[in-house]
Amino acid sequence: MSSPWSKVANEPVQTASLADIMSEQYAHQLHDKELQQQQKKQTQKQPQQSPTPASYSDVAGTSHNATATAATDADEWEDYSMLLSGGMNKETLPPEVLKLLEDEEESDAVIAQMLQSQFDHEYNEELRRIERQQNKQSKVTVTLNKFLRSGDAEFLHDTEADEDDEEDELYRQKRDWDRFETNEKMLDAIPKCGFKVDKEGEMITKHDPQLCGVRNAQRVMSFPPEFPTGDGACFDMKLSNKVFNQLKAYSRRGRADRKEKVATAEMGVDAATRLLLYKLINNQILEQINGIISTGKEAVILHANSDASYTGTNEHGHGNGVLMPPELLPKECAIKIFKTTLNEFKQRDRYIKDDYRFKDRFSKQNHRVIINMWAEKEMHNLMRMQSIGLNVPDVVVLKKHVLVMRFIGDNHNAAPKLKDARLTVAELSCAYEEIVAAMHKLYNEAKLVHADLSEYNILWYEDKCWFIDVAQSVEPEHPSALEFLMRDCGNIVNFFEKRGLSNIYTKEQLFESITALNAEKHNTAMLERIHTKGASINQATVPNQQECPDELKPLDYPFELAWEKSQQEREAAAALQELKLEAEAEKLEDNDNDKKLQDNDNNTAKQEQQ
Ligand code: ADP
Ligand code: MG
């Protein structure tokens, strides 16, 4: 047989069968072994015969006993290659192998399995050796178990090596992989008094340097996940206070950036928003962004700390749009990020498209710009409300769809919503009075209707009500302003009613007290739709008017109609009053004239008598 990869040799190549080669090698081995044994014997006893090296073929013929001896010596893994040479000693083979060998057809497969098994065993041995060597040098223990070959388990004899393996396994199980667990138990064993007396009678305090070291090591494990700590298994990691403090300081470095990343990643804001937030930090307006206060359908609210080093300009000397002097910059801020998805936008457009302040800009803009307008609207409304003395968060800065304002609350704790606040009856009553007065002021002085006023958008802080979430607030001229106001009145009255406050307005009374419009007399069609027919405000004011049933369609400019109507009535009443007064005046005049005439008559009569 010639090799297909080699050049064809000119000289004929001598061929040999694989079995021959194997048996030859094996014969070699046996021969050497025999020689060694003989030499040994000769050195122990007196040599009587000089050793005559046997020919390879002789040895091959009588090699089976010697093979068996070698195998049962059991200091080596059994070499099954002998089977290939056709020779075998049945007494030394395990019964399952014999059984298989009886079946001639299967014997080839058995031989293959045995060889594989031998190979696997050697392979696994090598892995264990590497493992032992590695673990000797390193503090971190590695295991290569997952690379072990499974064939090793087949056809195993009880050898010393196997006993070693078992010991290894036991050792592995006994090893304390999680030293932290053990250490934790040890630390917990120290009672509250702060010391413990051990078996040797020595006192261990909680300030014991050993214990402190272990505790510090444990604390390192609770550093942020992006700080690589290793697993610290299998050995007692101890850290001095000094090292621990340094690590802690290091782990906090760049925390603002990381927190900003975490917060924004959690809420899934887009890259543009992330950039805006990053700029706020970079411009030294904010120091760090701490996390989410609330995620709603339309906006995400984050908590942030302002930068104490803010001077009114950033390090490049640019102004940065902050709406207050540096000394008034609140320490804690709330960042409202308006979501820019289309669905939420559709909900909003009915508030903004009819607001004359945004009329010119509405139709031509894309969604992102409209969301920016929405944020701008919240800013304007907050400022307008603040200007008439209502309690609202101060606006710090507006950047596109990101609005930074004062955080209502202390030390990262947001003030509770009115719905969550625990109020005494007196406080409840105060809150009611305050809200009614605020609604009145808002409508009549700020010329605004909140349009989403409820116990969810009023915060209770320092015994006062704070109004938030005013992006949707509209002016009374807005086509749906009165509907929104009626709904606001309903929300407020319902809340206080549910809380059991007595002597409060009905929603119609509240509406009338705010607008001086009688809900029953004025614009009854519109009001009926909302609170008598039970139509939802969404249905009644749905942006796509084709979807709205005819009977629920909002009237054109109901406020103006109502206003006009009431104006006409007022004028009519005034005219009537005037007429009445005129009539009375005329009457009085007539009376006077009559009196005068009568007086004249009387006088003339007297004169005639005289
Ligand atoms: P949404 O449109 O999601 O309702 P809001 O403006 O009502 O947005 O804010 C949602 C929540 O975030 C509020 O209910 C309140 O708990 C909290 N929040 C909003 N602004 C502030 C602020 N300035 N200070 C403290 N908490 C706030
Ligand atoms: Mg809200």
Report on this model:
The chain has helices at residues 18-44, 56-61, 63-73, 95-102, 104-137, 160-174, 179-188, 209-221, 241-252, 255-267, 271-282, 342-352, 359-362, 367-387, 425-444, 481-498, 507-515, 524-532, 537-540, 558-609, and strands spanning 195-197, 203-205, 286-295, 299-306, 332-338, 395-399, 402-406, 409-410, 413-414, 458-461, 464-467. By secondary structure, it is α+β, with helices and mostly antiparallel strands. Among the domains are: 173-264, no CATH class; 268-414, Phosphorylase Kinase, domain 1, CATH 3.30.200; 415-532, Orthogonal Bundle (Transferase(Phosphotransferase), domain 1), CATH 1.10.510. The strands form four sheets. The protein has a five-stranded antiparallel β-sheet, with helices on both faces. Strands 1-2 form a two-stranded antiparallel sheet. Helix 8 (209-221) runs parallel beside helix 9 and helix 15 packs across helix 17 (507-515). The protein is elongated. The model is unreliable at 47-88, 154-163, 262-266, 342-346 and 554-560 (pLDDT under 50). Residues 293-294, 296, 298-299, 301, 334, 336, 393, 405-409, 414-415, 417, 456-457, 468-469 line the site of adenosine-5'-diphosphate (ADP). InterPro entries: Kinase-like_dom_sf, RIO-type_Ser/Thr_kinase, RIO_dom, RIO_kinase, RIO_kinase_CS, Ser/Thr_kinase_Rio3. Residues 36-53 have a biased composition (Low complexity).
